[in-house]
Write a structure and sequence with these properties.
Elements lengths: L1 H14 L5 E3 L1 E4 L2 E4 L4 H7 L5 E4 L3 E3 L2 E13 L2 E9 L6 E8 L1
Antiparallel strand pairs: 1-8, 2-3, 4-6, 5-6, 6-7, 7-8
Length: 101
């Protein structure tokens, strides 16, 4: 009986874990968002209604003249984060990372 209770508790704990993976692209609503793409282009594919939150700007460790943002999205249950920042300054903001949950 003890082992059954422990097994059930372990299953409950495992089902509540969130697994995340860094990916190079993600397909949402039939459109693909890719690492390296300009954020202006992403906005044509992902309306603001899908963004659930945004981090405060933080210093970009690779570009002292810029900052990075993390934008969290939920598109029909497809959850992911886009990390955006500038590669060159001046220059457009680009998708630096995509984290899929």
């Amino acid at each position: 009986m003890k082992s059954l209770v422990l097994t059930v508790l372990m299953l409950i704990l495992l089902t509540n874990l969130v697994f995340a993976a860094e990916v190079k692209s993600i397909k949402v609503n039939g459109k693909t968002v890719k690492v390296g793409e300009t954020f202006d282009n992403v906005l044509t594919k992902l309306p603001n209604k899908y963004m659930i939150s945004q981090s405060n700007p933080s210093p970009d460790p690779t570009n002292p003249n810029s900052f990075i943002l993390t934008k969290k999205y939920d598109v029909n249950g497809n959850k992911f984060d886009l990390i955006v920042g500038r590669r060159e300054d001046p220059g457009p903001f680009r998708v630096r990372k995509i984290i899929k949950f």
